[in-house]
Amino acid sequence: MVFAAGLCRERIVAILLDLTSTLQYKVFMNTIRRSIAATELVLVLPATLFMTALFVRNLQPAQYEPAHTAGRLVEWFSARPLLGLDVLLIALPFAALVIGCATVLRSWRSDAELRQAALKTLADVRAHSATLFIAVATLMAGGILAIVALHAITD
What we know:
Layout: H1 2-57, H2 67-79, H3 81-110, H4 112-127, H5 129-154
């Protein structure tokens, strides 16, 4: 009986140590994923700023703000083709794409919960596809009306 109690204690200690190391690994992996997510956002930020400036520049005449500032930002990018166009608009988003694909592929291979959640989501989308199509069409109609309204206001 004493031998069995000692064996049970050793198993409990081993299980507790295993749980502790597993939790530390999960915390470490979450930290890495958060760091990768932040890095990707930083890599995509200049291109997002440029695309937003292109849109804002066309909202109203160039002498008014924020169209004036957006126009200056677009001019800055176009005056520096190597840095502005090649690096900030092509290389950095491409790096974000490669890092993101590699991270998602690695997570897909190692995380069974992610695969199950994705399959469940696909099944839910398939079950409610008509409602999702209605929602997408409604959002598209709202976006089209907003663009037409902005065009009518600015002309």
